[in-house]
């Protein structure tokens, strides 16, 4: 059974930091491009960041310098380190796995940035 399980979301104050994790199982993790995608309240999906199997990283322009994506292929886990969080970063953050032929999604983890 394919699973992507996100964790780490919580309430954090503006300017704070969080690290999200996404644990994958049921497929060959290293074969997949991994991304984080978010959905703010009342808005559509927004791609945040992605990472190739060998560590090449990509970011949405507004996340550059604040978010860092990484992966540990030995642990089948992808991470999103976020610093300098802003209220507009409030969203459900989803993990996505994409091999070009197959796509998998996690259930999401809520990040709320508020004082």
Structural write-up:
The chain is an all-beta fold and 115 residues long. It has strands at 3-7, 11-12, 18-25, 33-39, 45-51, 57-59, 67-72, 77-82, 91-98, 103-105, 109-113. Helices cover 0% and strands 52% of the residues. The strands form two sheets. Strands 2, 4, 5, 6, 9, 10 and 11 form a seven-stranded mixed β-sheet that branches. It has a four-stranded antiparallel β-sheet with strand order 1-3-8-7, with no helix packed on it. The protein starts with a strand and ends with a strand.
Structural descriptors:
115 residues, single chain, mainly beta, 11 strands, seven-stranded mixed beta sheet, 0% helix, globular, four-stranded antiparallel beta sheet
Summarize the structure.
By secondary structure, this protein is mainly beta. The protein has strands at residues 3-7, 11-12, 18-25, 33-39, 45-51, 57-59, 67-72, 77-82, 91-98, 103-105, 109-113.
């Amino acid at each position: 059974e394919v699973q992507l399980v996100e964790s780490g979301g919580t309430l954090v104050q503006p300017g704070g930091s969080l690290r999200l994790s996404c644990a994958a199982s049921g497929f060959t993790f290293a074969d997949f491009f991994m991304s984080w995608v978010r959905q703010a309240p009342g808005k559509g999906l927004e791609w945040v960041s992605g990472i190739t199997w060998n560590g090449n990283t990509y970011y949405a322009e507004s996340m550059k310098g604040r978010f860092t994506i990484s992966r540990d292929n030995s642990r089948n886990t992808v991470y999103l380190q976020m610093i300098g969080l802003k209220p507009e970063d409030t969203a459900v953050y989803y993990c996505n796995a994409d091999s070009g032929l197959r796509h998998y999604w996690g259930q999401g983890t809520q990040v709320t940035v508020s004082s």
